[in-house]
C-alpha cells in the first residue's frame, strides 16, 4: 500500500497565508521521510488545489491510501460537515482507494504541550 498524507487547510484570499501552508507541508514532508510516499496540501476554498484536486493528484502520483489531515483548530462546520462530505464524494470517484480522515489538528493530544513550548520560547 502506498500512503500519502494530504494536509487540508481552509485557504485564504491572502496568498502569503496559503504559501505558509505550502511551506509547512514541505517541512512535514522532509520530517516524515519514507513514512508517506507523498505529503501534499489542499484547500477547502479560496486557494488551489481544492481538496478533490489534491486527492486526485496524490492518486495520480501512485497513492492508493490517503490520510487527510484537517489543519483546523476547532470542529466547526468545515471540519464536521464540509470536509467529510467532500471525502465521501472522493470515495465515490475513487472506489479502489482508501481515504481516511484524521482528527483535526486542534483535537491532537500534542496541542497543549505545543502551546506551552511556544509560550516558553517567548519567555512567558
Write the layout of secondary structure elements.
Elements lengths: L2 E7 L5 H18 L5 E6 L7 H10 L4 E6 L6 H17 L4 E4 L9 H11 L3
Parallel strand pairs: 1-2, 1-3, 3-4
Structure description:
One of its GO terms (molecular function) is sirohydrochlorin cobaltochelatase activity. Its EC number is 4.99.1.3. This is Sirohydrochlorin cobaltochelatase. By secondary structure, this protein is of the alpha/beta class. It has a single domain, classed as Rossmann fold (3-Layer(aba) Sandwich). 45% of the residues lie in helices and 19% in strands. It has helices at residues 15-32, 51-60, 77-93, 111-121, and strands spanning 3-9, 38-43, 65-70, 98-101. Strand 1, helix 1 and strand 2 (38-43) form a beta-alpha-beta unit. The chain is globular and about 50 Å long. The model has no long low-confidence stretch (mean pLDDT 96).
Amino acid at each position: 500500500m502506498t500512503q500519502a498524507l494530504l494536509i487540508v487547510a481552509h485557504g485564504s484570499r491572502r496568498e502569503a497565508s496559503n504559501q505558509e501552508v505550502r511551506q509547512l507541508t514541505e517541512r512535514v514532508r522532509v520530517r516524515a521521510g519514507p513514512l508517506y510516499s507523498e505529503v501534499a496540501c489542499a484547500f477547502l476554498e479560496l486557494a488551489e488545489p481544492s481538496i478533490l484536486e489534491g486527492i486526485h493528484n496524490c492518486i495520480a502520483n501512485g497513492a492508493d491510501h490517503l490520510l487527510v489531515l484537517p489543519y483546523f483548530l476547532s470542529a466547526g462546520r468545515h471540519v464536521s460537515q464540509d470536509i467529510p462530505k467532500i471525502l465521501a464524494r472522493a470515495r465515490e470517484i475513487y472506489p479502489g482507494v482508501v481515504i481516511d480522515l484524521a482528527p483535526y489538528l486542534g483535537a491532537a493530544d500534542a496541542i497543549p504541550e505545543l502551546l506551552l513550548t511556544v509560550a516558553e520560547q517567548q519567555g512567558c
